[in-house]
Records
---
Amino acid sequence: MNAQSLLAIAQQRGILEQRQLNMLYITLIALGLIAPWIAYPVFLMKLLCFGLFACSFNLLLGYTGLLSFGHAAFLAAGGYSTGYLLSQHPGIGPELAIIGGTAAAALVGALFGALAIRRQGIYFAMITLALAQLLYFLFLKAPFTGGEDGLHGFSRGKLLGFIDLTDNHAMYYFVLAITMLGFALVKRVVYSPFGQILQAIRENEDRATSLGYNVSRYKWLAFVISSGVAGLAGSTKAVVFQLATLSDAHWHMSGEVVLMTLLGGVGPLLGPFVGAGIVVSLQHLLAQSPLGTWGTPILGCIFVLCVLCFRSGVVGSIKLLVKKNFK
Amino acid sequence: MSAAFNFNAATLTRTITVSLFTGLLASTAQASISDNEIRIGYLDDMSGPYSDLAGPGGLEAMRMAIEDVGGKIGQHKIELFSADHKNNADLGANISRQWIDQRNVDLIAGLNSSAVAIAVTRLVEEKHRFAIVSTAAAATLTNEYCTPNHLHYVYDTYSVSNGAAKAIVASGGDTWYMLSADYAFGHAMDAQVSKAVVESGGTIIGKANHPFQTTDFSSYILQAQASGAKIIGLASAGSDLVNAISTAKQFGLMESGQTLASLMVFITDIKAIGLPTAQGTQFVSGWYWDMNDESRAWANRYFERTQRMPTMVQAGMYSSTFQYLKAVEATGSDEPQVVREYMMKTPINDMFTKNGRVRVDGRMVHDMYLAQVKTPEESKGEWDLFKILGTIPADEAFLPLSQSKCKLVNADQKVAGASRP
C-alpha cells in the first residue's frame, strides 16, 4: 500500500466518522427539541446550564491541560452581573443582561488568567482556587450582592422585547439555543488551528515553545474563552432561576464541575454534558427521596467506581467500546 | 356526553371524582380546593448542620398536625411530601418550582436558611402559592422581603436579640461585651443587641468578631473576661456557639460572676453541650416543651414518636400546619389570599402560643420567653433543661410596624403600630 492509498483510506474514515458524528448531533438536537414535552423543563434547563459550565471547564482541562480549581468564580461572576443588571435595570432585557454577564466573567477570567498561567500544575490550580476565594469574599461583602441572601426577585423579562420568558417552554428553547451556541463555540475553538496549538501545549509545552508559539498567550486566551463560556452558563442560570447566590461562587461548585467533567470524560466534547446530567439528576432525585441523607456518599461511590473502572469517563468509555467492536 | 354529564351531576355529592370533567364540576361546586387535595411540601435541611433543629423532626410534627385534623378536610385528602434543600438556594428554588409546576403544591413549609427562604417566598409570590417560614431566622423576611404570600411563624433575629437584650438589661445586666460571628447573621444580631442595650440604659463596653467556624475561642473569651462586663453576648450559632460556651466554661467565666447571653439557642444545642457546661446561659426562646400543660402533653406525644423532645421550630411547624389546615377548613379554600386573611383575623390559641396573631406584614407575633439553662442539680430529667425567667409580651417582642420597610404596611398601619406600646 502506498502513501496515497493510505491517505485516501484515512480520509474516507474521517468522512465516515464525521457523518456519524453529524448524525449524533442531529439526533441530540431533535431530542433537545422534544425533551421539554417529556421531562420537566426547569430541570432540563438546569442540566443544560451545568453542561455548558462543565464544557467550558473541559476546554481547559481536556484540551489545554490546565486544571482550574476556581471555575465557580466565573459562573458566579456571570450570574451576579446578570442578576445585578436585571434587578437594577429591568428594561435592558435578558439577552443584554446575559451578554453583560458573559463579558464580566470573561473580564474576570482575563485578570485571573494573567496571574495564574505564570505557574504550572498544582501551583496553577492553587492560584485559581485562591483567586476564586477572593471573589467569593467580594460577593459576600460587597454592598450590591445581597451578602448571604444573594440577589433575588428579578424577573426573566421578555426576549427581544416580545417573547415572554415566564413561560417555561419559551425559556427552555432560549436556554437550548444559548447552550448550542456555547457548545458550537467550544467545538469551533477545539477544531481550529488555535485548538490544535492548545493540544500541542497540553502534550508538550516545551516543544510548543521551541516551535515558536507564544505559549503563555495561547493559554491565557484559552482561559479567557473558557471563563467567558462559564460566565454564559452562569448568566443563563441566573435568568432561569431568577437568583444569584453564594453557592455559585463557593469552592464546592468548583469541585462539582471537576467531578462532572471526570465522570463524563475528560476530552470528548459531549462528556461534560453527560457528567453534568449524572450529577445534577442524582442531586435532584436524591433530594426528594428518603435516601436524601446518603446523597453525598452515593455520589462519592459512583466517582470512585468511575475512576477505578472507567478511567476515561462515561463518554470516553463508550467511545472506546465503539472503536473496539465496530471498526 | 350529555348522559355522562347528568350522571356526574347527579352523583356529585357522593362519588369520588374520576374523570377530569367531574373534577372540574366538583371543584366549582364545593368552594375552591385546587385538585380536590391539599398539598403540602416540606422543604428544609434534612441532612446537614441544621437538621436537628427542624429536619426530619419537623416533618413528623407536620404529620401529627395532619392526623389531628383527621387526615382530610371534608372529602379533600391532605398530601404531604418533603425534600432536602441542603441549605442551597438553587436547589431549594428548583424543588419549589417543580412542586408548583408539576404537583400543584398549595403550601410550602419549613424553609431553613435565609437565602433559601427569600428565594422560595419570592417564588410563591410570583406563582400565587402560600409559604409558612418556621426555621429561617432573618427578620428581613417580614421586613424588606415581605410578600403577601407567606408568613413567618416561630421567631426571628429581631425577637431573639432585641428581647433578650432588653430583658437582661432590665434584670440588672447593664454592661455588655459582644462576641459575634463575622458574617451577616452575626453582624445583624450584634447591631440589634447593641441598639437595644443602649436604648434600655445599658452600655456596650467592648466588641469582638470571630471568624465563622472558629475552634479556638480562648483569646476572645479572655478579652471578654478582662473587659469586666456583666454580660457576655454571643451572636453565633451552631458549632461556634458550642465552642464558645465550652471555652467560657473552661476559663471559669461564670464563676467570676459574668453571665453568658446567647442569642440563638435551641434545646438541641444545650442537649449537645450538656448542662454542666451550659448552665446559667440566658437566652430568648419562642416556646419550651415544659411551659404549660398543653405544651407538655403535645411534647410527650412527639417524644413517643421520635424519642426526642421538640425544638421551638418543630413545635411551630406543628402549630402553623394545624392553623393553616383549620383556616382551609373554615374558608373552604386553599387560595393563598383567602387563607391568609382568615389567619390574620383569627387569633392563634394552641399548644404553641396563646393569643398569637398574624400581622399585615406576615409576621406571627406571640409572646417570647426569657429562659435560662438549668444547673445539673436543678434538672430532674434528661430533657429538663431550661427554666423560664420571664415573658416578653408579643407587642414588644417583634419589630414594630412603625419601623417596618414592608411594602404591605401602609402609613395608617405604621401610625397604629406606633401608638400601641
---
Amino acid sequence: MNSVEKNDVVTKKDIRKASIRYMFMACNTFNYENQQAPAVVYGLSKVLRKIHKKDEDYKASLNNHFNYFNTTTWMANLLLGASIAMEEKDGIKSKNAVQAFKTGMMGPLAGVGDTLVWVLYPTIMGSISGYMALQGNPTGAIIWLLLNVIFFFFRMKLFDMGHSSGLKLITALGDRLNIFTESASIMGLTVVGALIPSVVKMNIPIEFKTGKVTLPIQTEILDKIMPALLPAVLTYVVYKLIASKKLSITQIIFLVIGLALVCSFFGILGV
Amino acid sequence: MEIIQGILIIALAFWMVLDQQGFVITTWYPAIIGMIAGIIMGDVTTAMIIAGTFQLMALGVANIGGSSVPNYGLATLVGVYVALRTTHDIENAKAIALAVGVPVGMLGIQLDVLGKLLNSYVSHAAQKALNQGKFKKMERIFWIGPLIFGMTTALPTALCVLFGDRLVRLILDFVPKWFTDGLSIAGSMLPVVGIALLLQFMPVKKYLTMLIIGFVISAYLKLPILGIALLGFAFAYYYFTQNMKKTPAVAGVGDTGDAGEGDDFDE
C-alpha cells in the first residue's frame, strides 16, 4: 500500500511491469549454471534502471542478479518484490544484503513452493481433470485453466506484497504455509487413493471350464476377493520398483508396455 | 484446413513450453493441452480420452529443481494430432496416440537438457553485453532463451505433423491385432506409473489412512472422483483449522518434520 510513498520514482505500474516480465521469462532462460538468474535480470532490468541512474551502479546491480538463483517461480515474486524495495531504499549499497536475502530465502520457499505448486496442485487438478478426460469430458481441464488465470493475478499480487511488506511477510508466511501443505497432502492422498481403482484398469478374460460350469476368473474370483485387486497390486509393485531405484521411470514405463503386449499376445489380459 | 490445423498444432507446441516455464496458464499438462488440441482438430471427446491417459501417467512427474522430465504435454499433442489424422475410432486412437506419444515425450527429456545447456551461452552473452554497457542488446539476447525452448517442442511436433500420420498408417497395415490391443491395455495400466511416482513424494506412511479411505470409497462405493475430492477437502479443512488454532503459540515447532519431506523433491 505504501510502496508509492516510499519512493516517488518507482510506481505501481513499474512493479506490475517487472512482475509480468519476470513471470514470462521465469524458466525460459533456465540453464545449468545460474539457473533462473537471467530471467531475474530480464524481469528487473527496467525497474532497476529507474532506481540506479548511474551506469556503473546499474551494471553492478544487474551483475549481482546474474548470480545463481533458483526457487519456485511463483514464490520468487515475493522475493523479487522485496529485493526491489531494498535496492530502492539503500541503492547499490544494498547489493550484498539483497544477495544474502535471495540466497537465504530461496531454499525454504522452494521447499514449500515446489510441493504446493508443482506437486499438490497438479496432482489434485490433474487427478480430477484426467479422470473426467478419460470419459471424454473437458470440464476438469476448463476448471484448471480458469484456476490458472486466477493464480496468475494472485502471483502479480504476491510481487506487490513482497515489494510493500518484504521480509516480515515472508517469514510470517512460512509456518502457515507448512500447515497448508500438510492439509493439501491430506486432500491429495484421498484423491490418489480413489484414482487407483477408477483409472488403472486390468481385466483377465480367462475362464475356467469344468464340465458345464464356467468360472470367469475376473468377476467370480478376483472381484470377490476385492474390487480393483489387480490395480492395487500393480500400484504396490510399481511403487516398490520406483523406490528401489534400480530402474529409471522410462524403463518402468517400457516394462509396463512390454508386459501389456506379452499378456495381450497370450490372452491373459483383455481390453 | 489440414495445413492450418498443422500450423496451429506446431504453434501450440511452441507456446506450451514457454507458458509452462513462465505464465503457467495454458501449461503443458495433458488435460489442458489435449483440450486445446481437440478444439483445433475438431474432436474434443477423443482428444480428451487420449489426454486423460497421458494426464494420469504424468501425475507424479514434477520438473522441479531444474530436473528434466518426460514431456507428457508433447506426447499428448503429437498423440492427439496423429491419432485424429488417422482414425476417429476411440480404441485405435488411444493405441496410436500411445505408440507415437510416448517415444516423442521421452525425446522431450533430451531436448530439454539440450535447451538448458544452450541457455548457458545466452546467459553469458547477455552478461557480456551488460558489462559493455549495451543494455538494449542485452534485452534482445534474453529473447533467444524462449526461442530455444520453444524449438525443443515445436521441432519434434513439426516432424510428427509432416510425417507422423503417413508413418502410422503404414505401420497399422502391418501390425497384428494383439499388438494394438496390447497398446490399449498398456494405456489403461500406465496411469499406475504416475500414481506410484507421486506416492514416492507424498507423505504416504503418515497419511496412509487417507489413501485407504479414498480407495475404499472409490472401489466399493463407486463415488465419482469429484465427490471424493470434496471429502478429501473436508478432512484437509479440519486438519488446517485445528492446526491453525494451535500454531500461534508454538509456531514452527511441530512442523520441523516437513522440511525433510520437502527436500525429497529435489532428487
